[in-house]
């Protein structure tokens, strides 16, 4: 009996060891497949973020050792630089107009494309989503030619139909440059917001709409009393994502205007790039890092504020339902 019991115990022990060994192998294989992406993430995302906080306390050009420690001087210069606050204000203006126009417009179009009466929905979705997958720098260069001062397509068309008498320097004028950048930004990322809204609309329970139709609710009443309340949590997240993404616009502005004319379209990302990598004199990576840290903290504060609104709206909606 004792021998049989020991044999069973040994078998259980061996099985347990084999199970632990198999789980360990699976975990190791998982880490092996994750390792390349994790290493790249640490090298090109985490490490630059951490080092930017270090560089911000040095007067460093990006070459040579870190020797000239200047403390908070870069931060003081950033906070007292009118050009930084001009770029910060432009970033907020760009974000406000882009979100204010793009988010509700994408919602209305998503409602149309979700309608069962709409034909060719797949084609429309593809057309609206194509700018999203197009390289932003390429879009900026193309738009630079379209809105060119003299032989641009926009001026040619508007002059042919009689709206303009002479060419307009759309991107070279302080009155129109920001407007064009905002309109191109809205067009470029419109398809992504459309997909977000479509996903939210298609996740709504159909039985609520069917019951409301049976009770005689009109299309406007369905939208006001069912669609809008149920979409508030999704819409809050879309608003948050859109706002944060709009606060980081670099490649589009760099390709279209480079922050001009007279810094009218200068954004914080372009401002940081100009000091860190521009050929205008010696590069100031330390100062650019300080500006990036300040702007990062500001974006984090805006994100927390909008995140609080998301949580508040979601809680109210849950209570209402």
UniProtKB/TrEMBL annotation:
Domain ABC transmembrane type-1, first and last residues per copy: 88-306
Locations listed in the record: Cell membrane
Transmembrane residue ranges: 27-50, 92-114, 126-150, 222-244, 287-310
Keyword list, A-Z: Cell membrane, Membrane, Transmembrane, Transmembrane helix, Transport
Topology term for the membrane: Multi-pass membrane protein
KW Cell membrane (keyword) present: yes
GO biological process terms, semicolon-separated: transmembrane transport
PROSITE patterns linked to this entry: ABC_TM1
Similarity comment: Belongs to the binding-protein-dependent transport system permease family.
Domain of life of the native organism: Bacteria
Protein name (record): ABC transporter permease subunit
Gene3D superfamilies (alphabetical): MetI-like
GO CC terms: plasma membrane
């Amino acid at each position: 009996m004792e021998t049989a019991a020991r044999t069973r115990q040994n078998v259980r022990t061996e099985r347990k060891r084999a199970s632990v060994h198999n789980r360990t192998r699976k975990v190791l294989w998982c880490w092996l497949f994750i390792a390349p992406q994790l290493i790249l993430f640490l090298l090109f995302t985490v490490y630059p973020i951490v080092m930017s906080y270090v560089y911000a306390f040095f007067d460093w050009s990006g070459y040579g050792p870190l020797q000239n420690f200047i403390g908070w001087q870069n931060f003081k210069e950033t906070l007292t630089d009118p050009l930084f606050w001009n770029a910060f204000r432009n970033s907020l203006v760009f974000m406000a107009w882009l979100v204010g126009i793009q988010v509700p417009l994408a919602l209305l179009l998503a409602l149309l494309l979700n309608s069962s009466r709409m034909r060719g929905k797949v084609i429309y979705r593809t057309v609206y989503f194509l700018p999203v997958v197009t390289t932003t720098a390429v879009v900026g260069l193309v738009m630079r030619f379209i809105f060119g001062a003299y032989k641009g397509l926009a001026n040619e068309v508007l002059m042919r139909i009689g709206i303009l008498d002479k060419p307009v320097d759309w991107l070279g004028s302080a009155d129109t440059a920001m407007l064009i950048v905002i309109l191109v930004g809205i067009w470029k990322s419109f398809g992504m917001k459309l997909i977000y809204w479509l996903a939210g609309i298609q996740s709504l329970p159909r039985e609520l709409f069917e019951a409301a139709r049976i009770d005689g609710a009109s299309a406007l009443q369905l939208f006001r009393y069912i669609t809008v309340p149920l979409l508030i949590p999704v819409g809050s997240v879309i608003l948050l994502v859109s706002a944060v993404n709009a606060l980081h616009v670099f490649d589009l502005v760099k390709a279209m205007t480079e922050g001009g004319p007279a810094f009218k379209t200068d954004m914080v990302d372009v401002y940081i790039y100009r000091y860190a990598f521009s050929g205008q004199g010696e590069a100031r990576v330390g100062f650019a890092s300080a500006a990036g840290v300040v702007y990062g903290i500001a974006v984090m504060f805006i994100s927390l504020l909008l995140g609080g609104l998301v949580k508040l709206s979601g809680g109210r909606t849950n209570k209402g339902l």
